Amino acid sequence: MLIHVNQEDRQFHLTNGQVSYIFHVMKNGQLGHLYYGKALHHREDFSHLQTYDVPTGATTHVYADDPAFGLETLRQEYPAYGNSDFREPAISVSNTTANHAPNFKYDSYQLVDGKPRLEGLPATYTEDNQDASTLQIILKNEFLQAELTLNYTIFLDMPVITRSASLKNESQEELVIDRLMGASLDLPDKDFLFTHLAGAWSRERHVKERILETGIQSISSLRGASSHHHNPFLALKRPEATEHTGEVYGFNFIYSSNFLMQIEVDHYDTARLMVGIHPFGFKWNLKPNVSFQTPEVVMVYSDQGLNGMSQAFHSLYRKHLVQAQWKKAVRPILINNWEATYFDFTEEKLVNIAKSASELGIELLVLDDGWFGKRNDDTSSLGDWHVDLDKLPGGLESLAQKISATGMKFGLWFEPEMISPNSDLFSEHPDWAVGVPGQHYTLGRNQLVLDFSRPDIVDYLYEKMSDIIKKTNLAYIKWDMNRNITEAFSQKLAVHQQGEFFHRYILGVYDLYERLTREFPHVLFESCAGGGGRFDPGMMYYAPQAWTSDDTDAIERLKIQYGTSFAYPVYSMGSHVSAVPNHQTLRTTPLATRANTAYFGTFGYELDPVKLTEEERAEIKEQVAFYKKHRGLIRDGQFYRLLSPFSNNETAWMVVSKDQSEALIGWYKVLATPNPKKQQTLRLSGLAESKMYKVAGSERTYYGDELMNVGLPLPTEFNGVNGRSSERGGDFQSQVFYLQKTGGR
Ligand code: DGJ
Fold it and tell me: Which has the closest alpha carbon to 149: 171, 168, 125, 172?
């Protein structure tokens, strides 16, 4: 049993032996939070966990005869504003006679096996009802005549709870929702580091950490995409916690648009976390008998440090978020022509790339931007989804056949949500662009955004894309999104409905994804937004891999992939070997280091194979064979971060198979050390102590406990030119080690 209900005392305990989440109905009918953390023994009554910080001085209390009962200091489950709690609320709804009507009171509960789907939204799911249990708490607001449902799902074998809320209008008039967060959580203290992933184009998801202090701290997006700048991920980490030990709470929002993750620390150090759609500019008109469902919040508790937290996210997403057909499928090693040709390609060039790549063992060619309309640079044609016959005279069908004749699969780039002012589509339908008619339209990369809040526009894109998928037998689509949304305004929504625009827009994006992935389940989608500008679990539900960053430099990728792994499985990260000097940094790194970094992701190439030397081709052939041998392990194994690029000159990480019989370790050193220590070792993680492992390429064997406590000996570094041989040297060194069990238990 995963959910215990004490009906008499109206208490709820969700526990799976790894975590406990406990709350109850308070005497005023609202929900009070009691505990969230490491699993506790179940007992019938938890009311002793209710603590009162009896406020002194100027304060408010709900009952005249109980001065201790003030919501100002009580820990709550889904707080409202206006009835003695002065902190920011989770909900704010009004009708024509009152605003913030706060009194949502407990009505009933319901238990559901497994996890119900969230209508129109990406969310975690169960294929087998045994894998999770869901508790739905129903609260009623008599004044508004509205019903609030709080959903809590606890998963069987992972330290994960997911939450969401939905509000139903049971009155005869329209209600206005100003704020409806996915989850709110009042933690009893503030002794945490606020850890998050921040960045910008080409340097996404760098790990940032700051001390949690009194007042409000937040990360957010108001860009119409989850953004390069702040990922919808947040961890609260005890100051003493490390990658391997200590307490960490992790939160991730399954949403791809405007979000807010906020913590408000009050005067008694209670830390209120709030995750949801960003309330700024949001206003939803809820018609009678209609419900509004929030996106889902994932909450992970780990007592095994940051790695424990990440592993829980990875397991959840691999098993309960990625669509069923991609969970175990082997994803193709691809070559993308973007950095090889940019807009300058012909059919012949592409076929030559495909032939040459096929000889190397690469499995799929992706034709990137520039195949449609008259697009020879980024100033035109988005929206004109018909092939450019000047570049591809035989059309896409002929190209697809020729690619297929080389033994490669064929994939295509789209940017469905965009429209160029210089396009046939814009001449025909200027009102399809997002913007206020007659006002200035801000450009981003010379383009405007299509109004995906309109179902007719989504239908149009569906027709265009599905037609091309069928005609060219596409195996893969890269779905790009290269600018954020400004002048957020739909010409089809009334002025008082414009606060619905952003959410309706992303629902349109999800709808198109839903229809295409349902009709073409064999097409692999890779999401992209100018690199990693929409790398979030909402997208992952439809597209099991995402282009991690436009930055393909191996050294920059150490930070980007390290940070991304905090929440997302390595097999979801598109990571490619590109040419040197690198196009984003002008840095020249060894081919081996470029591959050694890219192996820890969904592997591919972003270069012109025709221009490679014979030596390079031989090396790449080996890389491709190596990845094919290990990609099952990379997909299913347990990932451990070992050394952080944010605090070291060295980075290391590893993947261990579930049965601990094999492991792949990546070790990278950015700058060479003169006169370095000769006997360097790297301490590993996650191995079986009593299993004996052999290091591929050497005769050495070690017990798991040796490798974890003493360490794996690294090859000797020697930086010199005086004739002495060295195993490694120079800047940007790296090595990948493969361990396999040879004995022991
Ligand atoms: C941005 C993407 O991240 C790149 O990989 C490439 O597809 C370009 N857009 C094409 O315009």
Answer: 168
The atom of ligand 1 lying closest to the CA of 529 is 3
* Amino acid identity at 51: T
The residue among 530, 525, 497, 522 whose CA lies nearest residue 510 is: 525
* Whole-angstrom distance, CA of residue 458 vs CA of residue 564: 30
Nearest CA to ligand 1 atom 2: 530
Number of neighbours of residue 559 by Cβ within 10 angstroms = 21
Q: Write down the pLDDT at residue 717.
A: 78
Ligand 1 within 6 A of 528 CB? yes
Strands (E) located in 441-551: 448-449, 476-479, 524-527, 545-547
Reply yes or no on whether the pLDDT at 499 is more than 80. Answer: yes
Residue 134 near ligand 1, beta carbon < 6 Å: no
Strands (E), 362-479: 364-367, 409-414, 418-419, 448-449, 476-479
Residue 550 CB less than 6 A away from ligand 1: yes
Q: Which residues are catalytic?
A: 480, 550
The whole-chain average pLDDT of the chain stands at 96
Cβ-based neighbour number of residue 389 at 10 Å: 9
CA 416 to CA 432: how far, in whole Å? 13
Q: Which amino acid, one-letter code, is at 22?
A: I
* pLDDT tens by residue, 715-727: 887 666 555 555 6
Per-residue tokens: 453: 């809040």
The closest residue, in CA terms, to atom 10 on ligand 1 is 369
Region 413-425: what's the mean pLDDT? Answer: 98
Counting Cβ atoms within 10 Å, is residue 590 exposed (0-12), middle (13-18) or buried (19+)? middle
Cβ–Cβ under 8 Å, residues 293 and 628: no
DSSP bridge pairs for 714: none
pLDDT tens string 507-519: 999 999 999 999 9
| Whether residue 204 has its Cβ less than 6 Å from ligand 1 | no
CA of 447 to the centre of ligand 1 (A): 14
Residue 692 has what pLDDT? 98
Calculate mean pLDDT across residues 380-389. Answer: 98
Q: Is the CB of 604 under 6 A from ligand 1?
A: no
- What secondary structure does DSSP assign to 667-691, as a single string? EEESS--SS--SS-EE---S--TTE
Lowest model confidence (mean pLDDT) among 475-479, 630-634, 714-718: 714-718
Q: Which of 640-644, 664-668, 671-675 has the lowest mean pLDDT?
A: 671-675
CA dihedral in degrees (620, 626, 630, 631; nearest 10)?
20
Burial (CB < 10 A; 0-12, 13-18, 19+), residue 580, is: middle
User: For residue 572, which of 600, 594, 550 has the smallest C-alpha distance?
Assistant: 600
CB 279 within 8 A of CB 178: yes
Measured in residues, the chain has a length of: 745
DSSP-derived letter for residue 592 is H
For the stretch 394-431, what's the b/e string if a residue is b when 16 or more beta carbons lie within 10 angstroms of its beta carbon?
Answer: eebeebbebbbebebbbbbbbbbbbbbbbbebbeebee
Residues 62-87 as b or e (16 or more Cβ within 10 Å = b) = beeeeeebbbbbbbbbbbbbebbbeb
Mutation pick for ligand 1 pocket among 412, 482, 576 (CB with most ligand atoms within 8 Å) = 482
Instruction: Say what the pLDDT of residue 300 is.
Output: 98
- Residue 57: its pLDDT value, please? 66
Whose Cα sits closest to atom 9 in ligand 1?
A: 530
Instruction: Give the pLDDT score at 61.
Output: 84
Nearest ligand 1 atom to the CA of 550 is 3
Q: What's the burial of 537, exposed, middle or buried (CB within 10 Å: 0-12/13-18/19+)?
A: buried
